[in-house]
Amino acid sequence: MSRKLPLPVGTTNYKKICEDSYYVDKTLLIKEILDEKVNVALFTRPRRFGKTLNMDMLRTFFEKTAEDTGRYFQDKKIWQQGEKYTSHQGQYPVIFLSLKDIKARKWQYAFDALKYIISVEYMRHSELKRSSELEEADIELYNRIVKNQAGYMEYVFSLQALSRMLHQHHKQAPVIIIDEYDTPIQEGFVNGYYDDAVEFIRSFFSAALKDNPHARQIVMTGILRIAKESIFSGLNNIRVFSVLDKKFSEFFGFTTSEVQQMAAYYEQTDKLPELKAWYDGYKFGDTEIFNPWSVINYFSNNCQAMPYWVQTSANTIIQEILKTYNDDTYRNLHALLGKTEVQSIVRTNIIYPKLKEPQTNILGFLLMTGYLKSTGTELDARGDYICRLSIPNKEIKTIYYNEILSLLTEDIGENTVMNLANALYDKDAAKIKEALNKFMLKTISYYDNLKENYYHGLMLGLLAIGESNYDIRSNRESGLGRYDIQLIPKKSALPGIIIEVKAADKDAGVELSKLAQTALKQIEEKKYDTELCAQGVNDIIKYGVAFKGKTVEIVTN
Hints:
This protein is α/β, with parallel strands linked by helices and 557 residues long. The protein contains 23 helices and 20 strands.
């Protein structure tokens, strides 16, 4: 293989990438932004999908500097669009604020970080320090913010003031770019200062974004669209382009053709099926999208398929959702893990304190943050999205399995989970019962009125540890009905496993051993082993499992 350009792993500096790395050309985003003529555009996409790099590209294109930055675009697609677009290159002052690193456990630390970022951006425009176009009061405000001596309300209006000062000095209204605007809100929710963060950010944005005559255009990115009542109250000039919108759908993440071109450049076209299985599957608007972070890391790591994206941050939201242990969560979870689509209303407006209330908010959150994809979207009569949701690819599936397993092992210990898996293969009903009882004693209240969906999900979660040896399927047709759980062995030495789950109300006078026998009999009568037999699996273990409250009975063939 001839010497190739390196891939920009973790680099978001547009100029540096253009100079010495492989760049997937997204410069037509500039054309679309200019054509759309939106006063305030907000792009919401999952983390690590190219938002920051795109914003730095916009800054490099629009910003008026001493350096001739046109050279970074002359071999790019935007330059082929003609003078209508190239005439905007290097013509405007630019305000660039990235809030992606505002991560703190206390509001005071978060506010200190915000003040520092604001002061650094002020310092970047040092031409204002002695501008003859500004009033003395403006220069004094400039100096107070640079020296971190301004008051709270001066920081609230600091973005608006900077845009006004730049407009007066340059006689051109600035382009304002705000990257990852919602990070302080998210961190506030997780760390208990949500109200303080919302109060400041709402006022900060309102002052600068609402009918600001000193802003030529405003472009923002984030992971979520925070509901208007939380952040964007009174801002009617903002347009949001989410993962469900068709406009701008190809500019965040890699399209199929872009991945094909990359594979051809690195002489790895034979790896395209593996790339697709692991990192494709997203759908933004009508565009099929690959996870760019994972694709870049895949090629940079000698084409080794592994979950790269999931290693970039803690999956605390998944953990919080799993800890609710409600029927809706488990019904949807085992449907998704069983490769079944879930249909749901998805509201793109997120109010963090209400995140866990209806299941639709949870699913909408998972969709917007990249843990689910929409395979079909319609609008109902109220204007809400009705989406068919599924897990995008192998990489994301590992999160669900790993987080379920992590949660369970936290509660009952990894050895107990391993013992359960081994007991299933060994047809040891007593050990299975022991592991399940230990889990339920630690995690279930006697007063919980748990139903079959919960126990089904519990079993599915515990079985996640066996995914390396088995294809785990749930609620699939086989024979004369639909089995609950089936484990199809990936190695011929392993047995096939079928599990039928039954549950009785904790107050019902039901003999669990008989209910477990009924479950086992159902496997036989409905011929649930048809699918396994058709695949040549001769050794098949069948389990009837019956639950009531914190107790369980298991019978096997």
